[in-house]
Design a protein that fits this description.
The chain has 305 residues and is α+β, with helices and mostly antiparallel strands. It is built from ten helices and six strands. Strands 2-1-6-5-4-3 form a six-stranded mixed sheet. It is globular, with a radius of gyration of 21 Å.
Length: 305
Amino acid sequence: MSESSAPATDKATDVFVDHRELLFGLVYNMLGSVADTEDVLQETWLSWTSRNQGEPLEGITNPRAYLVRIAVNHALSRRAAISRRRETYVGPWLPEPLVAEGGAEDPALRTESVSMAMLVVLESLTPLERAVFVLNEVFGYAHTEIADIIERTPAAVRQLAHRARGHVHARRPLYQAHPRVRREATERFVEATLGGDIAALMEILAPDVTVWTDGGGNRQAAGLRPVHGRDKVVRLISGFRDRGLKKNLDLRYRSVNGDDAAVLFEGDEPYAVMVMDLTPEGDRVSDVYIVTNPEKLTHVHKEEQ
C-alpha cells in the first residue's frame, strides 16, 4: 500500500467500523447465525475495501446505503448455503442465541433485537421475504430503499412485504410482554424446573405449550421433533432436570436476543440456553426454546457472579 492510499483506506475502515453494528443486526436477523453473520461481515469488508483499487469512498455519496446493499446481498447468497446445511441437520433447528455477557450490554444487541420466537417464525419465510421484512419492519427502511438494496422494483418489494407480514402476523400475535412480567415468568419456570415442582410447572405452562430442543446431534436432546402439550412437556423437562442435576449445572440469568432467559453451564463451559415465550396474556409459557448444540454456544462465556 502506498503512503498516498493509506489515509483513504484508514478512512474507509473508520466508515465500516461506524456501521458494523447496524450491518451485524441486519445480517444476523436475516440468517439467525452468529458465525455466518461474522463471515458475511468479513465478505462485506473485503468487497468494500477492494472497490476502485482500494479507494472505497471514491464516488460514494452514501456509504451507509452502499454497505447495507453489499451486506444484504452477501447474506442472501449465504442463505442458500445455510439451507443446504439444514437439510442434513439432526433434530429441530433453532437460531444461534445472542447472549449478553453479565450485566453489560452486548454491542450486537444495541441494534434492533428480534426475539428467539420471532426468529423461529422468520425461518419459514423465503430469503427475499425475510430480507424485506427485516429491512422494513425491524429497521424501518422504505420500500423504495429496499428496492435499491435487493435490486427489485418497488411493486415487487411491496408484494414481498405484504406476504411476509401476513405470514408472520398469522403465526405470531402482535404483542410484547412487559419486561418485568417476562422476567417473573422466566424465573418461575426455571425455579419450578430445577426444583422439580410439578404442580408449579403445570400452573406456569400453557396447555398447548411446545418445547423445541436443538442439540444438532452433538448432545442428547429431546428428540427429532418439537414436543407439544403440557403433560408431555412436564415429562420432558423432568428428564432434562435429572440430567442437569447429575452434571451439577450452574444457572445464570442473561439477556438472550433482548429477552430474559436462563443459561446453564457445566463447569466453565456453556451447556444450554433456555428462552421462554409467553402467551398473549403474559401469565403462562407458550414455547420453550432450548439450545444445547455446543457449536451454537461457542460465543457464550461464563462470568463470576
